[in-house]
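dude i think i finally got it to work??
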Amino acid sequence: MNGALGNPAAAATQTLHAVVVEKMQQMIIEGALRPGARLNERLLCERFGVSRTPLREAFKILAARGLVELLPNRGAVVVQLSARDIADHFELISGLEAMAGRLACGRITEAEVDEIRALHFEMLACHARRDLPGYYRVNQAIHDAINRAARNNVLCDAYVTVNSRVKALRFRSNLDHAQWDAAVREHAAMITALEARDGARLGSILESHLLAKRDAILRSVQAEADVEEGCRDDARREDATSLLPTGHSVQGALATGQQRKPWVR
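look at this
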């Protein structure tokens, strides 16, 4: 035998890094590892109980999936998409899912419809108890099943590639309870269209569903940016105040033409 099949140590390493990939991907999706976060190898090795070799292999796989960015001689960070990137990704995946929905209605079997309907009820139960990780897992299984039912391998591959880059954002969109509730209603409409084999209707619902997620995420990103800018403004004001003599204000300093410099006794 060759390779990992004939080398138990190599096989164990491959198994380890596959486990690490899944655990890290889950952490990224659920926000435990935030966009832009630097990945500390020592801490992650301790957390997962592995050496640096499988961890670094996991980094490479996650980078290929668009979730991690490898920095030469500086380790790795969680990918942080710009607002433009987010808009572009969701514009694309909304079109891919709409096409999958249209095709699936003409090609899906009754057994597959039954499976998706069962997943939908399981998803509703997760929503009722506000189990977001469980909800997201079942939700993605529904979208994946519709894409498989389209019976188009090229479309399915494109969907998997693009979707891997926005899973964390799709999860995050449901942190807004109003948006989450709206998404559940949209899923009920998807099931109705699928049962009727109404491809045009299902495609339209899926496209609107994904674009609504895009809009919710962009609002959240802008709100976070506004908060961060406000914090920076506060810090700048505090810095300016600390450079003035006791009892003086920034406005007073500017009005009297004082220069901002350290107070020397």
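Strands lie at 68-71, 75-78.
im so relieved honestly
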